[in-house]
Specification:
Blueprint (H helix, E strand, L loop, with lengths): L5 H20 L11 H4 L5 H11 L5 H24 L3 H31 L7 H28 L8 H23 L5 H28 L3 H34 L2
Length: 257
């Protein structure tokens, strides 16, 4: 967090000692709803200055709540995508509409995150890391929505080979992302989640390569080939973006260890 968090820590310690003193003496603690009297007199001490900084620029912990909300959107979108490919084209179209709604909600969360980031003086993590993490999470939802749109618009029935397996991998990655984001707030070890996401991405990468190779060897209809190839590549990109989130999380862990 750097030196920006120091005044906040000092104020907390001073206030804690003041509360302890009043508790021992049986004194009443007045509500902190105005500046110290020394500040009003124009003879501000170091404590008075620190108090003012914290009042003007409070430490904002809402970021973790917004990131966790993004995690919920990601898991729900990936679940709907996986359910959609197991159903018929009409159900896939319904799922695509629901995923689009989730994508809009996720965009609003991302905007809230960036707005708070621009307005907050003291953040729980490096502002750049928070921005990168929020952007990476938003990208995952965007490409899940893109994949759902293509599967619905192309009305492919049955779905191309391997799509069910890839969407299952995407959902597994998103569950791990959600777990890691929750652990970030409580400083729990999230490296196991990140490693598993990397492993799943490698599995998806190998699967898509085999599917594309077989597609070009077996499919003679150029339009069908193009549709299938686009779907494979969009789904693979979704797993790549999950890995990008894991990379950002690992960077945060290293910087704050």
């Amino acid at each position: 967090m750097g030196s920006a968090g120091l005044p906040h820590t000092l104020v907390e310690r001073k206030q804690s000692r003041r509360l302890a003193r009043n508790s021992r003496t049986g004194g009443q603690i007045a509500k902190d709803d105005g500046p110290p009297t020394a500040l009003c007199r124009g003879t501000a001490s170091a404590y008075d200055t620190n108090w003012l900084i914290v009042r003007l620029f409070p430490r904002e912990e809402k970021f973790f709540d917004l990131l966790e909300e993004q995690g919920v959107h990601i898991v729900e979108a990936s679940r709907l995508l996986h359910d959609g490919v197991r159903s018929d084209p009409a159900s896939m179209a319904t799922m695509a509409g629901e995923i689009k709604r989730i994508e809009h909600a996720a965009d609003r969360v991302t905007h809230q995150l960036f707005t708070r980031l621009n307005q907050t003086f003291v953040t729980p993590l490096d502002p750049e890391d928070l921005h990168n993490l929020g952007s990476a999470l938003d990208d995952v939802v965007d490409y899940i929505e893109d994949a759902a749109f293509r599967l619905s618009a192309y009305r492919l029935h049955p779905v191309p080979k391997g799509v069910l397996e890839i969407t299952e991998i995407i959902h597994a990655c998103c569950l791990r992302l959600q777990s890691a984001v929750v652990k970030l707030k409580t400083n729990q070890n999230l490296m196991e989640d990140c490693i598993e996401i990397n492993r799943l991405e490698n599995v998806a990468d190998e699967l898509v390569r085999k599917l594309v190779t077989n597609l070009f060897n077996e499919e003679t209809d150029a339009i069908v080939l193009l549709k299938h190839k686009e779907i494979y590549e969009t789904l693979e990109l979704a797993t790549d973006l999950c890995e990008d989130v894991a990379d950002v999380l690992q960077t945060i862990v290293v910087k704050n260890s």
